[in-house]
Amino acid sequence: MKENENKTHLGDMPKEDFRRFGYEIVDWIADYFENLENFPVLSQNEPNELKNRLPKSAPEKGEDFSDVIKDVEKLILPAVTHWNHPNFHGLFSTSTSSVGIFGDMFASAFDMKAMLWRTSPASTELEPVVLVWLRQMMALPEDFSGIIYDTASISTLHAIAMAREKLNLSIREKGMSGRTDLPLLRIYCSEQTHSSIDKAVILLGLGTRSIVKIPTNERFEMDAEKLREAISDDKAAGFLPCCVVATIGTTSSSSVDPVEKIADICERNKIFLHVDTAYAGSAAIVPEFQHYFRGMERADSIVTNPHKWLFTPFDLSVLYVKDLDLLKKTFSLVAEYLKVAETVTNQMDYGIQLGRRFRSLKLWFVMRYFGQEGLIARLREHCRLARLFANWVDDSPNFEMLAPVPFALVCFRACPQTTEDLDAFNEKIMNEINASGEAYLSHTKLNGKFTLRLSVGSIRVEERHLEKVWNLLNEKVKDAVK
Ligand SMILES: *Cc1c(COP(=O)(O)O)cnc(C)c1O
What is the 152 CA–ligand 1 centroid distance (Å)? Predict the structure, then answer.
């Protein structure tokens, strides 16, 4: 049967076609991975270029699927910024692996909306097992239970909701608006904290005025003494401390807050402690990096993102909580049509979503395929490469480091002596390198200085890729001082 004739039939794509296109697509992706370095890292498209090339409405009749695949190549591919390119060093590099992609393929094929145990025993039971494995690898104590959400932003939202629920202010029932019996709730984090904290606070109705941003030291770490003062001032003013968010591996510079000291303060004041280690958490599996995570075991909740730096495709964020019952108390709400007789875990009870994607499968694949040794070796290599690059910066008179390198992120800038406006110069060379498609760097502001960020995290990254970036940067500086 021809593909198009089948369009008059009901049901799915004929199985012969599924097989044929399936093989074709896997071949396509395999070629793509092999040829990644031939693509410009950043899409060279102009804004709206793709949109303007697409029809204004859906096709009346079904099309040949081979034409659709051709359009992936013709229309979609030029609009792709290649996160998997080994010279993608902006933001945090993605680390996805082929086996992770296979996990997503199975998850899509099963298409379970994990909500009740009975609708999805596989997801309900695999997820806690995989998260116990990860918990052990991260050397976290047994009293942490894990749950998977899509992103760290959502994990943190759930954590702060738990912290609010723990205050026993009947906010679940009475809400916050129109109440005069509620004090101002306070959330403490550092001025380097990720914006997802602010978003969670907005969404939870606490208002941005409830956020207290604690200053950081010259290494961009939260000043614990200032936190202590802020809490005691707030208490004196009649405010109610709700939650402290500490970060291990901040987004800007990967700095590490003094979690042990912060945990002491939280314990003394009975404040919920959430640790955001969305990026760096993966490094907790590497024995020699364990010291960065000291005190984390005392947190009430921890977020880490295997989709950032544990070779798992987007999305998969893990929230570890000490009090799983509190999480359930915060979110459980069982409609009649969802009531079941079994005494089992139903994943819908642990968050905002009803249905959940079967995400644990891809992390299970990753852990089984690479093993703990394989994962540790790869993270270790990324950190070695980042330190190597930092050494080049340190040894060069034309560049300087702007932050320590605890993990695999290098914050630095060019500082040729002849250049007066270093901010403008660094922005210019970054934009030129990014526009060339050769590599992608991003930036941040540290101590008011325009800072280049180079993240090392791709599963394909090798020393030669860092040499390439280093050469590009040095050529730019050479051109400028000529
Ligand atoms: C990346 C990052 C986040 C946000 O991650 P999403 O999963 O994209 O929501 C939060 N906190 C830190 C420290 C991060 O590095």
Answer: 5
481 pLDDT exceeds 50?
yes
Residues of the chain with CATH 1.20.1340.10: 3-82
Q: Is the CB of 278 under 6 A from ligand 1?
A: yes
Whether residue 251 has its Cβ less than 6 Å from ligand 1: yes
From 250, 252, 279, 303, give the residue whose CB has the most ligand 1 atoms within 8 Å, as the site to mutate. Answer: 279
Q: What is the DSSP string of 108-142?
A: HHH-----STTT-HHHHHHHHHHHHHHHHHTT--T
Write down the pLDDT at residue 1: 46
DSSP state of 56: S
Question: Exposed, middle or buried: residue 8 (CB in 10 Å: 0-12, 13-18, 19+)?
Answer: exposed
Cα 366 to ligand 1 centre (Å): 21
- Is the peptide bond between 394 and the residue preceding it cis, with omega within 30 degrees of 0? no
Q: How confident is the model at residue 341 (pLDDT cuts 50, 70, 90)?
A: confident
**Ligand 1 and 190: CB distance under 6 A:** no
276 Cβ closer than 6 Å to some ligand 1 atom: yes
Token digits of residue 222: 């939260």
pLDDT in tens, 112-171: 999 999 999 999 999 999 999 999 999 999 999 999 999 999 999 999 999 999 999 999
The CATH architecture that domain 368-480 belongs to is Alpha-Beta Complex (3.90)
Express each pLDDT in 396-415 by its tens digit: 999 999 999 999 999 999 99
Q: Determine contact, residues 241/265, Cβ cutoff 8 Å.
A: no
Is 153 a pocket residue for ligand 1 (Cβ < 6 Å)?
yes
Residues of the chain within CATH 3.40.640.10 domain(s) are 113-357
Q: Which residues contact 181 (CB under 8 A, 6 or more apart)?
A: none
Asked: is 113-357 a CATH 3.40.640.10 domain? The reply is yes
The SS3 call for residue 480 is helix
Q: Average pLDDT of 409-437?
A: 96
- CA pair distance 283, 141, nearest whole angstrom: 16
Nearest ligand 1 atom to alpha carbon 277: 13
Give the residue whose CA is nearest to atom 2 of ligand 1. Answer: 278
pTM over 0.90: yes
Q: Which CATH class is domain 3-82?
A: mainly alpha
- Whether 196 lines ligand 1, by a CB cut-off of 6 Å, is yes
- Over residues 463-474, the mean pLDDT reads 98
Cβ(458) – ligand 1 distance below 6 Å: no
Judged against a pLDDT cut of 60, whether residue 354 lies above it is answered with yes
**Atom nearest to 307 CA in ligand 1:** 7
**Best mutation site among 96, 157, 196 for ligand 1, i.e. most ligand atoms within 8 A of its Cβ?**
196
